[in-house]
Amino acid sequence: MGEASEVIIPLFGVLDVTGEVIVMWGILALVAVVSLIVTHRLRERPGRFQNLIETGVEALDNYFAGILGRQHSRKYLCFLGSLFIFIIFANYSGLFPGVGLTPYAKAPTSSLSVTAALGVCAFLFLQIAGLRAGVRHYFRRFFSLMLPLLVLDELIKPASLALRLYGNVFGEETVTEQLYEILPIGAPMVMMALSLLFCAIQAVVFTMLVSIYLQEEIEIEAPQPPKSKHHRKRRKQS
Questions:
Q1: Long-range contacts: 100-106, Cβ < 8 Å, 24+?
Q2: How many CB atoms lie within 10 A of CB 210?
Q3: Shortest CA distance to 86 belongs to which of 115, 129, 48, 106?
């Protein structure tokens, strides 16, 4: 499963700050600063920077609306959009010079602990969304002969999300390092060029699967409209 991350700063014996944690904090700080700048200077006629951010948010909204519908995409855009932004930044952080080659800076998603935490967050989010959509609907699906398989399926979802993201990102970094040792000129550059597309795909796949799982959690059968008296009267006559 890869080498254990080197502890850079032990905090009170409770939290071990590693290279992945340092980069993760940097990503969170960057996103927070950008968000504060954009929301503090909102204008009716947006400038280039605000227009760029709004275009990105609109693209995410349209993407999730294609899976969940417009109403649900707006409702859950905050979590799903944040998840996508963090993962794609974390993936691309491994392409910066020096990241991954020093213990002080490593791509967060190349660590199983980080991807496992993302999987747990997605799992808790799905359960809460399912309960909020309808308590009866949430528990009714478990009352069947397939109960053990349904419970196992719920537990497998976060594990599969975590392992898929970790395996792909860690594998890509490992291949790039091996190519650099074998052929320092040429081959690693090709892999890094492919990684530009690869990192985006991994972020899309992760959030797409969470969106599909969310659709299953909040999908409630619409109640049948009551039959009118006129309809019942015609049925008796027939």
A1: 100/173, 100/177, 102/19, 103/5, 103/6, 103/8, 103/18, 103/19, 104/8, 104/19, 104/22, 105/19, 105/22, 105/23, 106/5, 106/18, 106/19, 106/20, 106/23
A2: 27
A3: 115
pLDDT tens digits along 156-182: 999 999 999 998 888 877 777 777 777
pTM comes to 0.80
DSSP string for 166-231: HHHHHHHHHHHHHHHHH-SSSHHHHHHHHHHHHHHHHHHHHHHHHHHHHHHHH--PPPPPPPPHHH
At 103-120, the pLDDT tens digits run: 778 888 988 889 999 999
Contact 85, 31 (CB under 8 A): yes
Domain boundaries, the chain: 7-220
CA distance 163 to 168: 8
pLDDT at 174: 77
> Consecutive 10-residue runs of the chain (238 residues): their mean pLDDT?
60 73 91 88 80 90 91 91 94 78 79 91 92 82 75 88 89 75 70 81 93 84 47 52
Phi then psi dihedrals of residue 105, to 5 deg = -150, 115
Contacts of 195 (CB under 8 A, 6+ apart): 94, 95, 172, 176
Beta bridge partners of 9: 17
